[in-house]
Amino acid sequence: MSLVDHDRTDEQEETVALLVAEIESLRRYVSGLMRSDPYGAEDVVQETLLRAWQLAPCLQWHERPIRMWLFRVAHNLVADRFRRSRTFPVGVTAEDFAAATTASVPDHADRVSDRCTLVAALRTLSSRHREAVARVHLLGESGEELARSLGVPQGTVKSRTHHGIRALRGELGTRGLGRPTGAGASGRIAA
């Protein structure tokens, strides 16, 4: 007989027997509360039994059923777990979350559609007008650089760009995408 077995009293054995008798019902109760976390449920059951064992001398085992006490302790432990999982980082306020949810995320499908429409409209231009518009407005080359690389006067580049943009606006207008005239057009095309 070991020293631990020798020190056990009848009262301790009765406490152990009462706790063992309640394990399955306690496990079912906690599993019902924590459906998505079976390992967490087992932790709660063990913590509940540990607290019962530690507080055994203070509890009134014979006057009241221990099951209700065990269920209340387990319920409180589960509630504490849920509260801990809902914590917010320090320094974050409700306004920060509101601003994040109201900010709209651009729809990339619209950009793809716009680019396809722009490319189709650019294909309707003559090659000279398309090159001038693309290099000046899409690639950001200056008129002077383009005139030098093409070997034409700068006025010719300006003319091709002007007529190309006008034709491009007309083509986009027929597709229902052009903006009304006089709307403060800068002549720049967004890529």
From TrEMBL:
<dbReference type="InterPro" id="IPR014284">
    <property type="entry name" value="RNA_pol_sigma-70_dom"/>
</dbReference>
<dbReference type="InterPro" id="IPR013325">
    <property type="entry name" value="RNA_pol_sigma_r2"/>
</dbReference>
<keyword id="KW-0804">Transcription</keyword>
<feature type="region of interest" description="Disordered">
    <location>
        <begin position="172"/>
        <end position="191"/>
    </location>
</feature>
<feature type="compositionally biased region" description="Gly residues">
    <location>
        <begin position="173"/>
        <end position="185"/>
    </location>
</feature>
<dbReference type="InterPro" id="IPR007627">
    <property type="entry name" value="RNA_pol_sigma70_r2"/>
</dbReference>
<dbReference type="InterPro" id="IPR036388">
    <property type="entry name" value="WH-like_DNA-bd_sf"/>
</dbReference>
<protein>
    <submittedName>
        <fullName>Sigma-70 family RNA polymerase sigma factor</fullName>
    </submittedName>
</protein>
<feature type="domain" description="RNA polymerase sigma-70 region 2">
    <location>
        <begin position="26"/>
        <end position="86"/>
    </location>
</feature>
<keyword id="KW-0805">Transcription regulation</keyword>
<feature type="domain" description="RNA polymerase sigma-70 region 4">
    <location>
        <begin position="121"/>
        <end position="169"/>
    </location>
</feature>
<dbReference type="InterPro" id="IPR007630">
    <property type="entry name" value="RNA_pol_sigma70_r4"/>
</dbReference>
<comment type="similarity">
    <text>Belongs to the sigma-70 factor family. ECF subfamily.</text>
</comment>
<keyword id="KW-0238">DNA-binding</keyword>
<dbReference type="InterPro" id="IPR039425">
    <property type="entry name" value="RNA_pol_sigma-70-like"/>
</dbReference>
<dbReference type="Pfam" id="PF04545">
    <property type="entry name" value="Sigma70_r4"/>
</dbReference>
<dbReference type="InterPro" id="IPR013324">
    <property type="entry name" value="RNA_pol_sigma_r3/r4-like"/>
</dbReference>
<keyword id="KW-0731">Sigma factor</keyword>
<dbReference type="Pfam" id="PF04542">
    <property type="entry name" value="Sigma70_r2"/>
</dbReference>
